[in-house]
Amino acid sequence: NLSKRLEKVASFVPKGAIVADIGSDHAYLPCYLVHKGIIQKAVAGEVVKGPYQSALKKVKEEGLENQITVRLADGLEAIESSDHVDTITIAGMGGSLIVSILEKNPEKLETVNRLILQPNIHARVIRQWALENKWKIIEEAIVEEDQKIYEIIVLERGNMELTEAEILMGNILIQEKSEVFLKKWSNEVNHWKKVLKSLEYAEPTPEIVGKRQELLHQIALVEEVIH
Ligand code: SAM
């Protein structure tokens, strides 16, 4: 059984896609996608030996060696041109790591028309990257599982315009204003307010003053959306 988080990621994979799941760990996502008949073929990439071996083992156990190729490789280097990958999934890492993986081998993205990204933190780094690299947010989701809140961003090629608040919080998620979204951002605001409070007693060095201004700015941005 797939986690709610990965099930949501899976829900954005187009039927018949050829998927590369980068940082696949146990290859749960590609196995699920093939079992459900959503896709016929996938590459599971892992840069760390242990998870790579878990992926190999899982794929073998499930009898999916003909459909899923597991490769030990750094990021997009797991993709070969003969794979004809058209969809990439990267889940369960920080937004900055996801962006660094996408930026390291841009030529691997040439055949790809959809990116399904699930950053554990710093989703805004992904939206900023998308904006600057001619990818457009076509869908977003936010889910809560085991007291953690996860965002999922689906990109296809195209241009978009985003405001500062939309980069931070997600244009589609802002429109939806789901309960989980409101919970996430009211938690963030509360946290920032606590940090601000703790800074009140700090010596007002330029760094501290800058940090306070940044926090005040973020709080104002978010409160305008959630209130
Ligand atoms: N994608 C799975 C999920 O969402 O449940 C596993 C997430 S796990 C927390 C992150 C995985 O990414 C780890 O197994 C790690 O080895 C792998 N990883 C980190 N950097 C990577 C890179 N540059 N290339 C491939 N895999 C990477």
Automatic annotation (TrEMBL):
Broadest EC class assigned to this enzyme: transferase
Keyword RNA-binding: no
GO molecular function: tRNA (adenine(22)-N1)-methyltransferase activity
Pfam family, one: TrmK
InterPro entries per the UniProt record, alphabetical: SAM-dependent_MTases_sf, TrmK
Any one Gene Ontology BP term: methylation
Domain of life the protein comes from: Bacteria
Chain coiled-coil ranges: none
Record key words, sorted: Methyltransferase, Transferase
E.C. numbers: 2.1.1.217
Protein name: tRNA (Adenine22-N1)-methyltransferase
Organism of this sequence: Ureibacillus thermosphaericus
